[in-house]
# Entry
Amino acid sequence: MRWDHSLLRWIAAGPGGRGDAMAAPSPSRPDRAEALAWLHESDPARLEVLWRWADDVRRARVGDEVHLRGLIEVSNNCHRQCHYCGLRAGIRELSRYRMTADEVAVCARQAVEYGFGTVVLQAGEDEALTADWVEGLIRRIKEETGLAVTLSLGERSSAELAAWRRAGADRYLLRIETSNAELFARIHPSKAGAPSRADRLLLAREMGYEIGSGVMVGLPGQSLEDLANDLDLFARLDLDMIGIGPFIPHPATPLGREALQRSVADRIGDRELMTYKMLALTRLACPEANIPSTTALATINVAAGRELGLQRGANVVMPNLTPPKYRVLYEVYPGKPCTHETADALQGRLDSRIQGIGRRRGSGPGGRRRS
Ligand code: SAH
# Structure
């Protein structure tokens, strides 16, 4: 299949122009200037207005259900050199693993036992996860569990995406990481001539996938203008799922070292607060999207990050089902909470945490709503 550069066509069309696959921005959402003003806002009382606005829109558009996606970190092997990621090729101290199909199937059955509607298969860009192997795995999970299957396997070819869709995969996650093309190029060495992540997402949508993307907040060199542009792009891509988390410096990576040396907070300020603002503004920009309260947020605020995310726009949680012996090695960033917690223990606490904020767990696959 040919890559369709509709994003490029849209950019070339200039402000207000859009490609066929793009949605028109909704008039009721904050425009770019308003979003930027919110990103600059520091008054807690004013920010309460934003949190309440986002929570109201969340309740009205996607309801009180918190959808649970069981995350399975299939492999921490990666041949890419992303400057931010602790799985990048060449980190010698990291032991590498790859789960067997049987091990993944056990995790998927666990997801069914726990009443989750979706499993997310995530990995580094591991060439040993061949098209055929992944295809067989998708078919097996579908046959054995009937769960919705989300893939987060990096920048894979259009032929692979098509084969996996035919095998039954429902959704594809690929974060753009930042809409600032120059910053992205600096932190993510791309292969010459490779399509952009946004173009890959649009192609996946044409194949029938629900598509998900997102960004990190607080990358060295990222500005508030960049974040406002991220929000614009989310709306124009009409994303079905949007994951937003703080950048967490990993000391074994070039960007992590840079951030630790010159204080990551230089332009964005408080990364946790900025992540909540981005979550809330994303809910307003894309009212029907499925938005997780991310693990990265729960990492920088272990006590309350998860709940605050859910109260400021998010409606999804992705509990980790990876066997603990592998989970400790899937160190995209340091300090992930619950690294040693068994899935059973986590399951025990999930319902009380969700009910504790007046919400209920979702049932069924929890796909994108369209009203
Ligand atoms: N190989 C896959 C999955 C990567 S891990 C892919 O590239 O899509 C999933 C996400 O973790 C990444 O998209 C990125 O947004 C996030 N991530 C990576 N390093 C991070 C860091 N240091 N801090 C916070 N989030 C990070």
Summary: The mean pLDDT is 91.
